[in-house]
Amino acid sequence: MSNEIDERLLTLFAGARETLPDAEFMQAFLARMERARRRQRLRRIAVVVLLGVLAAWITPSILATTAAVAHVVGEQSRSYGALVISPAGWAVSMLIGFLVLLRTGALRRR
Amino acid sequence: MTPALPGGALAAANETTVVLLAMNGDDEAYGELVRRRQGAIRNLLRRLTREGSLADDLAQQTFVHGWQSIRALKSPGAFGGWLRKLAVNFWLQHARSSRQEVALNEDARAENPVSSVSRQLDLDAALAQLPSDVRLCIVLAYNEGMSHGEISHTASIPLGTVKSHITRGSARLRELLQAYGGAYVQ
Questions:
Q1: For B27-67, what is each residue's pLDDT tens digit?
Q2: Which of A42, B56, B93, B99 has the most CB within a 10 Å radius?
Q3: What is the chain A residue with the closest CA to B143?
Q4: How close A36 comes to chain B (CA, Å)?
Q5: pLDDT grade for A4, boundaries at 50, 70 and 90
Q6: Hey, are the CB atoms on B184 and A9 less than 8 Å from each other?
Q7: Are residues A36 and B68, on separate chains, in Cβ contact within 8 Å?
Q8: Exposed, middle or buried: residue A54 (CB in 10 Å: 0-12, 13-18, 19+)?
Q9: Do residues B48 and B91 make contact, with C-beta atoms less than 8 angstroms apart?
Q10: pLDDT of residue B178
Q11: Which residue of B has its CA nearest to A37?
Q12: What is the distance between the alpha carbons of residues A3 and A16, in angstroms, rounded to a whole number?
């Protein structure tokens, strides 16, 4: 509290403070709180419904895209698989394995 | 999670406990806080608005907003000040939205101050003669017993402005109350 406060004004303000009946106020407040609660509940339901609609709307396109990507990856891996089991692929993979062993020093004598 | 108190114990519980319960979603505890604080908030808003029904309406808006956002409260001990700030914000919002109307009323009072002054020996009538931001500072200082710093924080007004509002506002209020010839002169 500041020192510049006028004591007489302070007394006047203290005297003007009323004891207000609370029953009616509390009743009105509780009714208002109930309305706010109902609004909040409706808002939550609306958000859930909106998310559901959104999911239903975008899920087919997400699934279609995922299927297309999976198909492309499957096709690619099948051709890589065929390459690896061919004689040329076998020779290349043996060569790569040999280079890796050489690089790591696994073939060096101790 | 704070456990709920048995029936009747809420009224006897200290405020920190009740605030903690309310922060955990206990609506009965929040109702108890409203019961305890409604008098102070309604009195504060009555000094600011000078209209009982408007003050009660703003007080209810304050308490409903408080119920919706009590989880954002930083500490239970800050509940009183936080609620007062909410009430002041609701009043400021209302004052801003009806600024034109207020300005018109203030012009009318300035044209003929004696007729309205001589009508009532009333602190609220004298307060109503002050510009709204000055009135806010005066009410927070005298009605709520707040320091200049607290007023500055609550009303979001620079400290220097708060000081000058209180000095000038107190002088103007004394003048008006002396013109009433009532309680202040005796």
A1: 999 999 999 999 999 999 999 998 889 999 999 999 999 99
A2: B56
A3: A13
A4: 8
A5: low
A6: yes
A7: yes
A8: exposed
A9: yes
A10: 84
A11: B68
A12: 22
Host domain of residue A52 = 7-104
Q: Where does chain B hold its CATH 1.10.1740.10 domain(s)?
A: 1-97
B177 vs A12: CB contact, 8 Å cut-off?
A: yes
Is A1 inside any structural domain?
no
pLDDT tens digit sequence for B68-118: 999 989 899 999 999 999 999 999 999 888 764 554 455 444 444 444 333
Question: What's the structural domain count of chain A?
Answer: 1
Predicted confidence band at A86 (pLDDT cuts at 50, 70, 90)? confident
Could you name the CATH architecture of B99-186?
Orthogonal Bundle (1.10)
> pTM of the predicted model, to two decimals?
0.70
For CATH 1.10.10.10, list the domain ranges present in chain B.
Answer: 99-186
CA distance A45 to chain B (A): 17
The CATH number given to B1-97 is: 1.10.1740.10
Q: Is A31 on the interface with B (CB under 8 A)?
A: no
Q: Which residue has the higher pLDDT, B122 or B186?
A: B122
Whether the CB of B83 is below 8 Å from some CB of chain A: the reply is no
